[in-house]
TrEMBL record, chains A, B:
This is Pantothenate synthetase. Beta-alanine binds at residue 61. The keyword Coiled coil applies. ATP binds at residues 30-37, 148-151, 177, 185-188. CDD domains: PanC. Its EC number is 6.3.2.1. Keywords: ATP-binding, Coiled coil, Cytoplasm, Ligase, Nucleotide-binding, Pantothenate biosynthesis. GO terms for molecular function: ATP binding; pantoate-beta-alanine ligase activity. It comes from Heliorestis acidaminivorans. Its main location: cytoplasm. Pathway: Cofactor biosynthesis; (R)-pantothenate biosynthesis; (R)-pantothenate from (R)-pantoate and beta-alanine: step 1/1.
Length: 282, 282
């Protein structure tokens, strides 16, 4: 496995693979890899001849007062995991390599879909995501790119961006990978201290409860939101950022469940902001 | 020469050329071709194995009350000119083909460089330009793309966009082509009625005057602007939208001429808004 850190090296490698007619898969990450990322790699290995895993903690997608500085980083451990999973190249550029002229002046923005949920809590976040993903797509020119359903809104936004801008990449989305007790895997789970880890179960417990209600015929979004809110509020350490039920493609809130619905939430456990969601087909 | 109108046909043609290892040049236009466009084609023919000329009057880059509806269109005449110039494909998609889902939700924006000059007079214009050019770049994946210096701010914006987003295309810029009396060629010159055509000479006359002053040692931007403004104001039919002297790359106004300076103006002749500029190396 190669570790490349410059655009020039990355582009040269891609050009060589293109000449060999290889299908290229990209798994864009911020590193501190977990089994969720590994599931993306496994899928990429199946579809493609060469797999690039990018590791870049993108300053553009972090807001003021967010965790950019302390976001966990461990390239050595990541390299080991990536190698074991059969990644061909880790692309780990520096910030000046990605934003060489100081402040980036060009941005890719998706409207409407970014207004609610994490878009409302984290202004500018999705603009940072779509801009860096566009850059990575242009650098690596992947045939396929892999994203986790854990970031459900990001998935909807990137799909829409790729369609709207006629990007030559197929977006593949893989299900959330969870711990045995239901907690969705996240690099940020490392922030959970002591009993917070147990409290963090409440996100998926609430989502499971909603799914049970839906299985029993409940279709009223406000009823479901009430049940979930009550459950989470019973947990001392939990503070709700948002819980919403939205159309899975447009991210518009829905009153009565129908079609592809996304139940999504962001909840603080202590100081750690966790997100989780389930996709429900009604 | 082929005339293609769908994305599918265009992409299939590109894929076939790529398999042949052909270098592709793109000349993006809004049609109603003139010798300025033809100079772009000539240059593309020289650099590339296959030349695509796109014709698309892009609604996204026209503001309310601008000339989108009446912008001159003549595909038959354009096809003849393109064929004679050796264009391989005209790509002339319909609006629904380019914006299939109604309102486009994804936009590419370049900040700062778009704030002044035409960006100030035409809010949203450059966002429309950068978005459609990104789409065309993704559809056609050109190795080279050709733009005219007549749209000097557009050139600066697109160059910056291509760099900032790591686009895999070389931007080539060709000088303004002028009529014998100095009027810069523009599809919009067709709007000029009767004596307006003669009045339209005043734009380049003012720019020439400024160049003479600079040749004689004048470096003070406000002095030059004063001289040009006075000249244009003497013309009954002319109404200045803006005259500015800016850094040719950042589009920031400059007081004392130094380096690559752009003297740019937009002037209404009757109801027709014309733009012109000269690049001055000091």
């Amino acid at each position: 496995m190669l570790l490349l850190t410059t655009l020039a090296d990355m582009k040269a490698w891609i050009t060589a693979r293109r000449k060999e007619g290889k299908k290229i898969g990209l798994v864009p990450t911020m590193g501190y890899l977990h089994q969720g990322h590994m599931a993306l790699v496994t899928s990429a290995k199946r579809d493609c001849d060469a797999v690039v895993l990018s590791i870049f903690v993108n300053p553009l997608q972090f807001g003021q007062g967010e965790d950019y500085e302390v976001y966990p980083r461990d390239l050595k451990r990541d390299s080991q995991l990536a190698q074991e999973a059969g990644v061909d190249v880790i692309f780990a550029p520096t910030v000046p390599e990605m934003y060489p002229r100081g402040k980036q002046k060009t941005f890719v923005e998706v409207e409407k879909l970014t207004e609610r949920l994490c878009g409302a809590s984290r202004p500018g976040h999705f603009r940072g995501v779509t801009t860096v993903v566009t850059k990575l797509f242009n650098i690596i020119t992947p045939d396929y790119a892999y994203f986790g359903q854990k970031d459900a809104q990001q998935v909807a936004v990137i799909r829409r961006m790729a369609e709207d801008l006629n990007m030559n990449v197929q977006i593949e989305v893989l299900p959330i990978v969870r711990e045995a007790d239901g907690l969705a895997l996240s690099s940020r789970n490392v922030y959970l201290l002591g009993t917070e880890r147990e409290s963090a179960r409440v996100l998926y417990q609430a989502l499971e409860k909603a799914q049970q209600e839906i299985a029993q015929g409940e279709k009223d979004a406000s009823m479901l939101l009430k049940v979930m809110t009550r459950m989470i509020e019973q947990c001392d350490k939990a503070k709700i950022d948002y819980i919403e039920i939205v159309d899975a493609f447009t991210m518009e809130p829905i009153q009565k469940l129908e079609g592809s619905c996304l139940i999504a939430m962001a909840v603080y456990i202590g100081k750690t902001r966790l997100i989780d969601n389930v996709l429900v087909e009604v």
